[in-house]
Design a protein that fits this description.
The structure holds two protein chains of two kinds. Chain A has two helices and no strands. Chain A is mainly alpha-helical. Chain A has a domain of 27 residues. The radius of gyration of chain A is 18 Å and the shape is flat. Chain B has one domain: Glutaredoxin, CATH 3.40.30. Chain B is 43% helix and 18% strand. Chain B has a five-stranded mixed β-sheet, with helices on one face. The longest helix of chain B is centred in the middle third of the chain and has 17 residues. Classes of the chains: A mainly alpha, B alpha/beta. At the A-B interface, helix 1 of A face helix 1 and helix 4 of B.
Chain lengths: 71, 159
């Protein structure tokens, strides 16, 4: 049982980066304009204000986000 | 002991895709195998520029005129440019290809077999391969005249 659990953890840990990563040539849907996080400047400003007010943190927007990721 | 071996071999298998990435100094993957049915040009003994592009990639759009200029200047001296599109949507691939007026060969990697084999680190990515089929340069991205000048210098050195 113990060995089985370690085995499962090892698999999950080793492939977690692969699961999360979108390959550069697969970003077609993410490159669409509608997927942009700052589509509406006013909404973006309100969202950032909300994050800052509630969590005493702001910024970090776009981390692992959309866009074509080109260049 | 058996469990440790099983874990290590599983981790190795799961990370195999990253080991397959085409890198400088490595042999170019076989395009005839990766693009079955494609009317590939003869690249035996030629300097090859393989470029991965997509219709949704802005820098790719900027790179096409540059590659046209390289084709005009060096195709007679032994350069072959093969541009591989990775669009999921065939209609977008065709529309982009029709609009850009490429003078070089275009192919559609519908199943992403070529992309998985080369594993381009960004879009676009260009590979410059020498006459012996060895990848000599890998360019991540396209940055206008600077990148075009790099292409020209590297191609001239290999021709």
């Amino acid at each position: 049982m113990k060995h089985t659990l370690w085995f499962i953890f090892a698999i999950i840990g080793s492939c977690s980066s692969q699961l999360a990563r979108v390959k550069p040539y697969e970003r077609g849907n993410l490159a669409k304009q509608v997927m942009s996080s700052d589509l509406d400047p006013l909404q973006k400003a309100m969202t950032e204000h909300g994050y800052f007010s509630r969590e005493a943190s702001f910024g970090g927007g776009g981390v692992g986000g959309g866009g074509c990721g080109c260049n | 002991m058996k469990t440790i071996i099983a874990i290590l071999s599983t981790i190795l298998v799961l990370h195999t895709p990253s080991l397959r990435a085409a890198e400088e100094g490595g042999k170019m993957p076989s395009l005839s195998r990766l693009l079955p049915g494609a009317a590939l040009p003869n690249i035996s003994g030629k300097v090859v520029l393989v470029d991965f592009w997509a219709s949704w990639c802005g820098p790719c759009k900027a790179s096409f005129p540059a590659m046209n200029r390289l084709h005009d200047k060096y195709s007679g001296k032994g350069l072959v440019i093969i541009a591989i599109g990775v669009d999921d949507d065939a209609a977008k691939y065709k529309a982009f290809a029709g609009k850009m007026g490429a003078k070089f060969s275009l192919f559609h990697d519908v199943q992403h077999k070529a992309a998985e084999s080369f594993s381009p680190p960004s879009m676009p990515t260009s590979y410059i391969i020498d006459r012996k089929g060895v990848i000599r340069h890998v360019h991540n991205g396209f940055r206008g005249a600077i990148t075009e000048a790099e292409y020209a210098a590297e191609i001239e050195a290999l021709l």
